[in-house]
Amino acid sequence: MTEGKIINIMKYALHDGPGIRTTVFFKGCPLTCLWCHNPESQGVGQELMYWPERCLGCGQCLEICPNGAVVARAGTLAYLRDQCRACGACCQVCPAGVRELAAKTMSVSEVMAEIEKDLVFYDESGGGVTFSGGEAFLQPVFLIELLKECRKKEIHTTLETCGFVKLELLQTLSARVDLFLYDLKLMDSRKHQAVTGVPNQLILANLHWLAEHHPQVIVRVPIMPGINDDPETLQQIGEFVASLKRVTELHLLPYHKAGADKYRRLGRTYQLPDLQSPDSERMEQIAGQLEQFGLKVKVGG
Description:
Blueprint: E1 3-13, E2 21-26, E3 48-50, H1 60-64, E4 70-73, E5 76-79, H2 89-93, E6 99-101, E7 104-107, H3 108-116, H4 119-125, E8 128-132, H5 140-152, E9 156-161, H6 167-174, E10 179-183, H7 189-196, H8 201-213, E11 217-223, H9 231-243, E12 249-254, H10 260-265, H11 280-291, E13 296-299
Parallel strand pairs: 2-8, 8-9, 9-10, 10-11, 11-12, 12-13
Antiparallel strand pairs: 1-2, 1-7, 3-6, 4-5
Helix pairs in contact: 9-11
């Protein structure tokens, strides 16, 4: 039975493709974007998220932890993340949800069962399922099987991707995907690597190939103040997207801090604590600059 790691299945999603959608978030991503609002999706392995303020002090986690990751100190329970193996034993006994596993291992049939619950909404709105992440391409066998099942049931499929994937795999799966939402952050490869952890030559080459061979590709640009919203960078993005065959639509996604607290839950430090979201006026200015390239520009997903 084919299984994969899923961090969340979000129902009634309105910003991940056309219509009302079910968005399936895969675990694992080849990028480590500084602003990532789903940091629990980055690593391929299991992780544990921690809410110490919920603790009731019942001690059940202390008794059951097989790795010594919970200890009693000065009348309180302390969590030693370095000792934790994310086995989930504490999660099963905790009555307050102090700890939760970041991902759930699911079979293709289990994911499809969740997707099919909303068939009536897809039919009425022109929606479907969106595979997101993380990066779904990091679990290719699982993704292929899900795409096959969706095709059998005539469910519209959208795949959101960072594009950092082998071309051969992209070519293999592209015919099974109805719509691609393709993330584009920066054109300068050195700057791209500094804020995402990887260069962008492969990403740009894959986008160029996809635009030549797939009929439905929307480019999405997260707008990060001070990182990619300067006139030169926007000019480079506009020129590149305008040069792509068949791609005429560009979505601008304003930065937000919705996922910042997750870093603390994972025992990490958020690297952009002072970054502010661009206001609506600034987003409209950016949209206006990119519309000059003949592109249909939308603010939001």
